[in-house]
Amino acid sequence: MKSAPAKYAILFFACVLFHILGTWSLPLIDRDEPRFAEASREMIERGNYIVPYFNNQLRLDKPPLTYWAQVASYHIFGENDFAARLPSAIAAALTALLIFVWGRRVGGERLGWWAAIIFTLSLQTFVHAKAAVADMWLVLFMTTAHWAGYELLIDSNRAAARPAVASYPQSRWWLTFYLALALGFLAKGPIAWTPLLTVAVVIIHCRDWQMLRRFKFAIGVPLMLLVVALWGIPALIQTHGEFFRVGIGRHVVGRSLMTLEGHGASSLGMYALLLPFYFVTVFISFFPWSIKLPWLVGKLWRNREAGVGALAYNRTRVDTYLLSGIAVVFVIFTLVSTKLPHYTLPAFPLLALLLARHWHQTAADGSRRSQFASIAIAI
Question: Which secondary structure element, helix H or strand E, spans residue 185, and what is its range?
Fold first, then answer.
């Protein structure tokens, strides 16, 4: 039997290898990959690791974390397409590892493996883990924050729900929560703070206001802002405030209220027509596992009708938390005017855990033959 560190290493390196295959033979594509790769190269050339430039012009679209990761990769592997894409593969592999450990704590090792596999093999993960863009770093830190938030919320139920699962001090989880939110901001801006909304939704749903104390907002939020400010203040000084005006004003507020770069609704009628956009595109983005989504929705509904959902919620709060996180991500981007299919990618780790959890339970209750049939159908 392999030790836990050995399993972690196998999963991580297997995922990295899977994601990097072919990245050295395919040239940088679309608009974003060349811009990220070149901005990182110019960061080295200028020796300025605070403010990115592209073609000697300020590039204020995204915060710097992805550029920093690409710069580190360039220093090791040289300035090439493979080195530009490697950080995304590493971020995707780390996300799969987090999902595995989180899933194991939720429902055992088999659930963890399935959740990691589902996430890794979904179409949008496959695409963006090979792309020299910021999305996988956002997914990594949002997943970290969601996991830490989950651990804080279910702390009081740990002993009753899964006594064999190790318990850690709350300080470990709330520190992780706020540091992940800060690093997520440095990856792609304020959207990384979505886990705060997930936590708020669950607490309101529970009506257990004592949960608020576990998050130590009075300490955690200033800590998060301090980490962001370590980069943000020098960036604002160097750009005379332009990073805030363009990075937040145009690429966050503007992207929410109007269509940018032709992606999304250009009129009120088109906006209304595109409201179901992500609920349709998820069947492509989450493929091949999306073919199990109607079954998952049906199972959750049947559990709710039978009262099983309430029992499970009171015992572990797993489904409520995962569903809340998924819903928050989908609702936010549904309301945003600019739309691209991959925007809901941060919800996929939660969706993978939810699907693995219920698929695992069904397989455990069924025959070996039905287990193989379910796996064959999904793949």
Answer: helix 170-188
CB 288 within 8 A of CB 119: no
Q: Which residues contact 376 (CB under 8 A, 6 or more apart)?
A: none
Q: H-helix or E-strand containing 372?
A: helix 368-378
Give one DSSP letter per residue of 280-296, joined into a string.
HHHHHHTTTGGGGHHHH
Is the bond leading into 288 cis (omega within 30 degrees of zero)?
Answer: yes
The answer to whether 89 and 16 have CB atoms below 8 angstroms apart is yes
Torsion of CA 85, 88, 90, 96, to 10 degrees: -140
Q: What domain range is 213 assigned to? A: 4-378
Number of domains in the chain: 1
Q: For the whole model, what pTM was predicted?
A: 0.89
Phi, psi dihedral angles at 264 (to 5 degrees): 125, -155
Summarize pLDDT for 202-242 with one digit per residue, the tens. Answer: 999 888 888 888 999 999 999 999 999 999 999 999 988 88
Whose tokens are 């959740």? That residue is: 115
CA 7, chain centre distance (Å): 22
